[in-house]
Amino acid sequence: MALRYLLDENIAPAYQTQLLRRNPSLNVLSVGDPGTPPKSTLDPDILCWCEEHGFLLVTNNRSSMPVHLTDHINEGRHVPGIFILNPNMSMGQTIDNLIEIAEISPADKYQDLIIYLPAI
Fold first, then answer.
1. Where does the DUF5615 domain start and stop, copy by copy (predicted)?
2. CA-to-CA distance for 41 and 23, rounded, in angstroms?
């Protein structure tokens, strides 16, 4: 199965637009899209949704997400992975990195991991 991305609500909508423009075969959703958790959903609930639906979370939450992931794993749960954006990367660099990751990585490569971009 190909990697699927869920962008958290604090990621600019242009990321989703540009990812899909550059690679229309990607499955990229944002929190608040139909079928995803609504905006203002708590991070632990977003991790549960990602686990249940097989989406990697793309976020800029560097402070609390590692704690939430640790708690999630300690409950015996799993997550396909979490990518944390690098504030020193441009949007174009981030888009390129996420597309490259999706094109060459097996779906389970990042399970239960937090990866700080750039990942490749």
1. 4-103
2. 28
